Structures are given as C-alpha cells and as structure tokens.
C-alpha cells in the first residue's frame, strides 16, 4: 500500500491535510473546498462528488478519470486542466475558466457551462446531452464533438484571445496571412 499526503488550502478549511492510498485515489465527497488552491497537481481518479468548489483554482492539474458529478464549480479556474474521461455530470460550472481544458471523452451531461470561458477547450468525444452553454465564450481553437453546434446551445463565438498574438513590430502581411488562415478554418 502506497500512501500520499496532500495539503489543500481553502477559505472554508484554511488548511486540510489528506492522506490517501494511491491505488484507490482520494475520495472527498460532499466537501466544501470553496476557494481551494490545487494548482498543478496530479488528482487522477479523485472523487469530489457533490462538492463545493466555488472560486477554487485547479489550473494545470490532471483530473483525468476524476468524478466531480453534482459539484458546484461556479467561478472556478480550470485553465489547461486535463478532464479526460472524467465524470462531470450535472455540475454547475457557471462563469468558470476552462481555457485550454481537455474534456476528451468526459461525461458532461447536464452540466451548466453558462458564461464560462471555453477558448481552446477540447470536447472531442465528450458527452454533452442536456449541457447548457448560454453565453459561454469559445474560439476557433475550441474542439467540439462531431455534429455538435455550440451556437444551438447559446455559446458565443469570441476570438478576442488571439488579439495578443501580434505586437507593434509585426508586418501587415503576417497579420493578413493569419486572418486568412482563421477564415479557412470556419
């Protein structure tokens, strides 16, 4: 049996030390991790079912095969998080930051992504039945499942994230080439 100890910092619990068996994973169902800081961590297979993760930061973490179903992810930050094969059924993920998150083969059925940032997110093979995307922003780098039209679910195309790519020194032909490439992708 190989154990691992992690420290979780949050407004709800100040500091929580958790020890778990690596072969089983961590189970913290129905826990409050409001404003928790779990950045750049391996959280593979963690079970945080029906947990309060409002305003939490999980940026750059690996949550593949995790179960966050029924959790509250409102205003949480999940930049570049790996949710591959994760279960996020019926989560409330309103106004979350999921820039460059990987949802490949994740189950997001019934999840509310309203007003979230989905620029560069990858939903290849994800289950999105009854998911809501009202006002969620996505760009040309966002990958949706085959036959899924995000506009039909209220998502808004917003490619403003690419504005920073050119500085004042850039020549006009490079900018025009990039615009032409983006238009061909649509």
Considering DSSP H and I runs of 4 or more, what fraction of the residues is helical? under 10%
CATH superfamily: E3 ubiquitin-protein ligase SopA
> Could you give the order of the helices and strands?
EEEEH
Rg, nearest Å: 18 Å
Shape: elongated
How many distinct domains?
A: 1
Secondary-structure class: little secondary structure
Strand order in the largest sheet: 1-2
Instruction: Enumerate how many helices there are, as a single number.
Output: 1
Q: How would a crystallographer describe the biggest sheet? A: 2 strands, antiparallel
Tell me the β content: 5-15%
Walk me through what this model shows.
This protein is mostly loops. It has one domain: 3 Solenoid (Pectate Lyase C-like), CATH 2.160.20. Helices cover 8% and strands 11% of the residues. The chain has one helix and four strands, in the order E-E-E-E-H. The strands form two sheets. The chain has a two-stranded antiparallel ribbon. Strands 3-4 form a two-stranded parallel sheet. Strand 1 (3-10) and strand 2 (14-21) form a beta hairpin. The longest helix is centred in the C-terminal third of the chain and has 14 residues, at 172-185. The radius of gyration is 18 Å and the shape is elongated. The chain starts with a strand and ends with a helix.
Compact overview of the structure:
This protein is mostly loops and 186 residues long. It has one helix at residues 172-185, and strands at 3-10, 14-21, 137-138, 156-157. It is built from one helix and four strands; from the N terminus they run ββββα.
